Amino acid sequence: MAQIISIGSTQHIDLLKDKLGRGLMIFERNGFKINLEERSDGKFTFFSCCLDGFPEYCQLEDDPQIIIKKYVADLISDIILSHWEVFLLKNIICENYYYYGDEEKKIIYNYALQHINRKSNEPRKSVYWFNRKRRILNKILDYLKLNNSIIIDGFIRFRLKEYINELKDATDKAVDDFLLEREYREFIELLKYFVEIQEPRAYMVHVLINNVGAFKLYDDKTQPVRSDYLGGFLVDMMDSEINYEDMLVSALVTIAPQKIIFHHKKNDRYSATIETIKKVFDGRVSECPGCELCTPLNN
């Protein structure tokens, strides 16, 4: 009885055993006699695939041992991406960003999943997933051409350094996302504080934003809101290097109205600004479904 391949691992033992067993049954139905042997050695569990006999008439084009190795390589690459990857990401975060709390690490982890396309409903269908799968599979196949045994833990650590670096890059980007989100939350809280301590200069403010990016403020009597920072003039955000969306936020915080109504043509360009204003003026912001102020904007 000849050993074809031995697979060792410290993780996902039951999954590995189940997938190996089901896969080898396909060969057995075609007349091959393959035994799957299991043994433990310290923290490692090893599975050995041993070929005990051939069918009388073998119609396979490739050597059965090569075919079995290809199957095992595909199985291992799939387990690495589908199961090990989560463990590897969490381990990278714990090692490199140990100074963050548990909740902060969870946020970083979720951002990292987005960067490696694992937050979609079907990550296996993403091009990025298939590319990583192909690279890992080719690495395993190259290794098994010269070796009859593989320890998944060591293979990942020493043979998949490029893959590990991808996960590290995703984690670094996730930390940047986390810090930006934290700064944004702190910024919102600061603006909310300013609004709370401000004496309202108007009960209601109508915000008109036209299709080219200009905005103007009106009070509850539809009269232009005049101030030193806006001058009551139409400000074109497209014709200046100044960030007039930030200026709009600042103007509204200074006026601190009890109610804000947006009149604008639906445009994703301003959705982030409007969402920020909604968070600062919690419960005070609404979007007009259509009125006489909206008509010129839509035209």
Automatic annotation (TrEMBL):
InterPro entries according to UniProt: Spore_YtxC
UniProt-listed Pfam families: YtxC (PF08812)
Protein name: Sporulation protein YtxC
Organism (species): Pelotomaculum isophthalicicum JI
Gene name of the record: ytxC
